[in-house]
């Protein structure tokens, strides 16, 4: 980390992670500063790349993504061409919300978000299984989210 963050910066980041739409005045009050230095700290963290962007949390069920699947994938071989092909194909699949290249028993950990088990089965059969470099897939299904 290039930037040294103090307790106020960390408090600002925590507030923004909880509610990125909170007004500058409210943030300033919570961290014990006035609006201008609070604004300047946030802008500095944006410019330095500590804050990469702002987002929203969605109710997945209400947008037709009621089933979350943790999908672990192993590849047949580990060469740069196969890794790049796999990553390009995965990046193009709308059902894949996150994908991490990991160390351990599997090569990739993904979060798949679909409407239901039928949609996941279709995804698995016709999209994931169509990637020739995959040797093994392990799926686990989320029953509830404790912390997002």
Order of helices and strands: HHHEHEEHE
Radius of gyration: 20 Å
Strand content: 15-25%
> Helicity level, as a percent range?
25-40%
Low-confidence stretches: none
Q: What features would you describe in this structure?
A:
It is a single chain. The longest helix has 13 residues, at 35-47. The chain has a 4-stranded antiparallel sheet. The chain contains 5 helices and 4 strands; from the N terminus they run H-H-H-E-H-E-E-H-E. The two termini are 24 Å apart. The protein is α+β, with helices and mostly antiparallel strands.
A few lines on this structure:
With 148 residues, the chain is of the alpha+beta class. It has helices at residues 7-18, 24-31, 35-47, 80-91, 117-128; strands at 67-75, 96-101, 108-114, 134-141.
Supply the key terms.
alpha+beta; 148 residues; 4-stranded antiparallel β-sheet; single chain
Question: In terms of topology, how is this protein built?
Answer:
Elements: H1 7-18, H2 24-31, H3 35-47, E1 67-75, H4 80-91, E2 96-101, E3 108-114, H5 117-128, E4 134-141
Antiparallel strand pairs: 1-3, 1-4, 2-3
């Amino acid at each position: 980390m290039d930037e040294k963050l103090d307790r106020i910066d960390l408090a600002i980041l925590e507030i923004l992670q909880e509610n990125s739409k909170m007004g500058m005045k409210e943030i300033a009050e919570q961290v014990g500063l006035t609006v201008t230095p609070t604004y300047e700290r946030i802008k500095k963290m944006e410019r330095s790349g500590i804050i990469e962007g702002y987002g929203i949390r969605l109710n997945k069920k209400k947008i037709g993504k009621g089933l979350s699947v943790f999908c672990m994938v192993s590849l047949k071989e580990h060469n740069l061409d196969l890794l790049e092909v796999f990553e390009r194909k995965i990046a193009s699949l709308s059902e894949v919300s996150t994908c991490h290249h990991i160390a351990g028993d599997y090569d990739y950990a993904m979060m798949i978000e679909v409407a239901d088990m039928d949609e996941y089965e279709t995804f698995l059969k016709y999209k994931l299984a169509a990637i020739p470099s995959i040797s093994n897939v392990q799926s686990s299904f989320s029953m509830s989210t404790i912390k997002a």
